[in-house]
């Protein structure tokens, strides 16, 4: 009965492939590869190109398990490699191992290059206890929950990310973790390998480059002791000593909610509900409308023009009467065309805001 060999491959520098790995690959009858097009040049370079290649990737791992088991039953020497690094660590391989072991076959591991261990070796921050989270979900509360749970129990956090999304990730990590030391390891084992170091919320040195894949390491800290006393949201919302971003971060951390939701709750606590904000916008637009009419009246009087004979239009929308009167006569302002355009725009704004208020009120009554 054959043995399934799980072989780590280089993540950038071919010289990192161990002699043991090369020998195992050379002796293999079948090599299962995440992408045969990627693996074949590596095998040929180290003189291990004689084995049959079979594509086994994240989408067909479970389906291929019986085929691999049959090869092992027949006494074939079978290897599994991912495109780079250690199979099963944010890469295909784990399901194959699980299925083959469940069928009673033996698995051996040929360890080697790993972006995870390489980043940790050069991080230079507290990683005595850590949580490796792989690639975080792109969106949603689960993304935040995973990080918060690790930070709360004092663990360092290690995640994989694409370079073009790292800035967004670092902003999120700062909101969830506060100003902790962070290291972004980029292009590991390659020519331009770089460790970008700094503190969350600050600037990295050297500045981050939008290229390649990265490993982000956030240092561990003390276990977070959650205060059982409820947070005074109103007091926090009106704490002028803190920036809006810091107030939202503290509320999000205390209540286990997203930063966006924390902003909304703080606004409500300050009396800035959605309805209040719309009413304020309508009031400002109405004031602008009255001011525009007053300016035109002043200009008309200065030019000794006739008094405005138009009457109120009877609209119940604040500011609309002033705008309708203004549009019903030639403007006396220095730029009459622009004045008319401004009046029409304001009329559209106050009408839309009034309609929005009615819709909000109707929704609240249901």
Question: What can you tell me about this protein's structure?
Answer:
This protein has 366 residues and is of the alpha/beta class. 46% of the residues lie in helices and 14% in strands. It has four domains: 3-113, Cobalt-precorrin-4 Transmethylase, domain 1, CATH 3.40.1010; 116-218, Tetrapyrrole methylase, C-terminal domain (Methyltransferase, Cobalt-precorrin-4 Transmethylase, Domain 2); 233-269, no CATH class; 274-365. It has helices at 19-27, 36-45, 61-73, 94-102, 115-123, 141-152, 166-177, 233-237, 244-255, 259-269, 274-302, 320-327, 336-365; strands at residues 3-7, 30-33, 52-55, 78-81, 106-110, 130-135, 156-162, 181-186, 194-199, 213-218. The strands form two sheets. It has a five-stranded parallel beta sheet with strand order 3-2-4-1-5, with helices on both faces. A five-stranded mixed beta sheet has the order 6-7-10-8-9, with helices on both faces. The protein is elongated. The mean pLDDT is 86.
């Amino acid at each position: 009965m054959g043995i399934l060999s799980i072989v780590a491959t280089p993540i950038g520098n071919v010289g990192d492939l161990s002699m043991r790995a090369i020998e195992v690959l050379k002796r293999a009858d079948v090599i299962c590869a995440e992408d045969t097009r990627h693996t074949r040049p590596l095998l040929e370079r180290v003189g291990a190109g004689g084995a049959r290649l079979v594509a086994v990737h994240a989408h067909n791992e479970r389906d291929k398990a019986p085929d691999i088991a049959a090869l092992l039953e027949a006494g074939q020497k079978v290897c599994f490699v991912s495109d780079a690094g250690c199979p099963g660590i944010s890469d295909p391989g784990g399901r194959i191992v699980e299925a083959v072991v469940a069928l009673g076959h033996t698995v051996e591991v040929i360890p080697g290059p790993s972006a995870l261990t390489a980043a940790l070796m050069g991080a230079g921050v507290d990683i005595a206890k850590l949580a490796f989270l792989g690639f975080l979900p792109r969106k949603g509360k689960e993304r935040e929950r995973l990080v918060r749970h690790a930070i709360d129990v004092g663990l360092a956090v290690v995640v994989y990310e694409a370079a073009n999304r790292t800035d967004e990730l670092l902003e999120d990590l700062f909101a969830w973790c506060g100003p902790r030391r962070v290291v972004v390891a980029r292009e590991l084992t390659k020519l331009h390998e770089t460790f970008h170091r700094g503190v969350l919320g600050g600037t990295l040195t050297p500045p981050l480059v939008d290229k390649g894949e990265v490993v982000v390491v956030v240092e561990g800290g003390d276990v977070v002791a959650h205060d059982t006393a409820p947070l005074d949201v109103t007091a926090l919302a009106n704490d002028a000593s803190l920036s809006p971003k810091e107030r939202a971060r503290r509320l999000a951390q205390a209540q286990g909610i997203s930063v966006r939701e924390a902003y909304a709750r703080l606004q409500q606590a300050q009396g800035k509900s959605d309805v209040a904000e719309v009413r304020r916008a309508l009031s400002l637009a109405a004031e602008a409308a009255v001011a525009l009419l007053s300016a035109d009246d002043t200009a008309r009087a200065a030019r000794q023009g006739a008094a405005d004979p138009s009457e109120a239009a009877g609209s119940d929308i604040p500011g609309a009467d002033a705008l309708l009167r203004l549009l019903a006569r030639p403007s006396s302002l220095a730029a009459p065309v622009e004045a008319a355009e401004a009046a029409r725009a304001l009329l559209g704004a106050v009408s839309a805001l009034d309609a929005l208020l009615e819709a909000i009120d109707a929704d609240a009554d249901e």
